[in-house]
Amino acid sequence: MSSSRILVVALALGACGAPVEAVDAGLPMRDAGPAHDAGVPPPDAGEGEDGGAAGDAGPQPDAGHFADAGHFADAGPAIDGGTPPTDAGAALDAGAALDAGVWRDAITSAAVGSACYRYQWPSRGQMPRGYAKGVALSFARGVCQPTRSDVAVVSMAQTTNTQRDALAWYSAQFAALNLDNSVAGLDTFRHTYTLLLGLGMRESSGEHCTGRDTSATNTTSDSAEAGAWQTSYDSRTSSPELPLLFDRYRASTTGCFLSAYAEGVTCSAANWQNWGTGADGLLFQRLEKECPGFAAEYAAVMLRVRGGAAGHYGPLRTRAAEVRPECELMLRSVQAIVTAHPEVCSLL
After folding, report:
1. What does pTM read for this prediction?
2. How many Cβ atoms sit within 10 Å of the Cβ of residue 29?
3. CA 20 to 30 Å from 261, out of 38, 131, 184, 348?
């Protein structure tokens, strides 16, 4: 990005009230050190296990990563939903597209320039650059589309159901940080994503390609957990929104943001292995790993409908997943960019 464009980004971010740490785009990108090796199972990958019913025949892994001619035959950047979505109208004006690109870069710069990115998570360390960037983009996409039905679920006011609603179960933690979830809207949406960031770090150290916990018995295509949030296909009955998200992403990769989430993550052949024989369950595992934007949106809904004391995710049941104020501040900066420059939504 040219120095003049960086200045524009910085000035506009300041006008939006974004924190200073989110606008230092002119500095060299922080080196996160060696890539996270997703080939090493995360310490508590099995924490998400909820003992769902086995839906098909037992542990028969598929032929591996991209083995069949499915929706994800190309593992490369073409899967990245950062490409402008196709529209029936005219192509984006070149100047508008350039401006949108500047603000998309501002979103990812805000993510990796933040204290959230630098935070050392207990037993996990620093998150991958790609996890910070990817979640920021997925969150920004939701801010761009507040009337989307799944966003409405994530944005709804906190319920009183501590068994199922993570915001109710974590109400004391949010209150301690003065984060109010009593009103439906983007503030509650942002707070849900703040907890989502902590959950992904606990489940997988923020690595999008994490496969099932090999020490667990969840080996059917219905029950095998996958992706940064270690979600399994048998969760789909928790809300009508979940099958809709699955159908949307099996038809289109817009919003996957794979190239963003993959930055700084090393994936082994074992990570890409999927389990079971049911076609939909196998595709779900692939989407969770190869389309991490889908995994984020799906898990965000799960936090509100099956994320409480009796929910799907072990780190939520035990409240081991953290709500970090640094991450709420980072997402607040991202929201300010989208609000001030809605043209960026054409690239999300």
Report:
1. 0.78
2. 11
3. 184
